[in-house]
Amino acid sequence: MTERMFMQALGMGIAEEMRIDPKVFLMGEDVRASVYGAAAGLHDEFGDDRILNTPLSENGFFGAAVGAAAVGMRPVVETLTSFMWVGMDQLVSQAAKMRYMFGGQATLPVVYRAVMYYGGGSAAHHSDRSYPVFMNIGGLKVVTPGTAADAKGLMKTAIRDNDPVIMFEDGTLLPTRGEVPDDPDFTVPFGVANILREGTDVTVVAIAGSVPHAVAAADEMAAEGVSVEVLDPRTLVPLDKDAILNSVGKTGRLVVADPAAKVCSAASEIMSIVGEEAFWDLQAPMQKAASKQVHIPFSPSLEKLVYPTKYSIVESIKKTMG
Q: Among 125, 126, 213, 295, which one carries the catalytic annotation?
């Protein structure tokens, strides 16, 4: 185990898989220079043939990745979540559907790395947190790591998977640090939640960048005598429904912390599942600590009011505790 930044852990996962499998390659805008950080050192090790700079044309290189995956390669595509709208036809009409439409004759082992750079004054065009949209698209796996170890382990699992995976990398977590296994065989399975803190009074399901805020909120509530269980689903498709239902069955209360906008969010889906399948376990109304349903303002003083924080999660916990 070595303490590493979340960003470094992502790069470790990619590098290890590239060393193991020569079919794995990385493509994206300026990846040779590693403008966004996680690809640092990869071009020096793997060269031009496996680290490919692309034009500013997401629909083009998203589609090129689909074609490469269909003929046996394992592309990893770096992009920003805000640029994914340009490549939606390739993501939704091709990557998500091709294996089904071809009757299983083709597999699509492609990973789209969608970096979410919100919270840093990037304004409306560059601050999307779009993972709930892709939860609605059959055929795509949706991954939201919340810790450095999970960043590495889930990246390796995504690259080895034979279906298209979108890895949403939360920009607010990139500089955070955590213990990361050095073992090149370390992976984190999809569909298995991580209970970061055991508790008995209320369950907080925290997604992506909300994870450290939820842990901080749990620490604050512990000082007030409230025992908070913090659960990170790690993957939204597939979702570890059983872990969430079991936790709510134990605590009787649910708060979901979600950096995406609150309408039609991952939080909404999780609360819907609990409402349908664990209603009689609930002792109080569920609460949602999600982003406000607005475009992201450029003003830093306004932007910080949009997202869930430790304080809004604490407020939600207190509401459901009555």
A: 126
Q: For residues 252 and 282, is the Cβ–Cβ distance under 8 A?
A: yes
Cβ atoms of residues 87 and 58 within 8 Å: yes
- State the burial class of residue 8 (Cβ atoms within 10 Å of its Cβ: 0-12, 13-18, 19+): buried
φ/ψ of 9, rounded to 5, equals -65, -40
Q: What is the pLDDT of residue 36?
A: 66
CB 210 within 8 A of CB 217: no
Q: Which domain holds residue 158?
A: 2-180
Number of domains comprising the chain? 2
Helix (H, G, I), strand (E, B) or coil at 30: coil
Work out whether the CA dihedral 127, 37, 163, 186 comes out positive or negative.
negative
> Quick one: how many helices (H) and strands (E) in the chain?
12, 14
| pTM for this model (two decimals) | 0.96
Same-domain status, 201 and 158: no
CATH number at 221 reads 3.40.50.920
Model pLDDT, residue 11: 96
Nearest alpha-carbon partner for 171 in 126, 237, 238: 126
Verify that 9 and 143 share a domain, yes or no.
yes
Taking 50 as the pLDDT cut, the residues of the chain under it are none
Q: How far is CA 73 from CA 38, 67, 111, 158, 202, in A?
A: 21, 9, 11, 14, 45
Residue 213 annotated among the catalytic residues of the structure = no
Report the 10 Å Cβ neighbour count for 100.
Answer: 11
pLDDT for 309: 97
- Count other Cβ atoms within 10 Å, centred on residue 284: 13
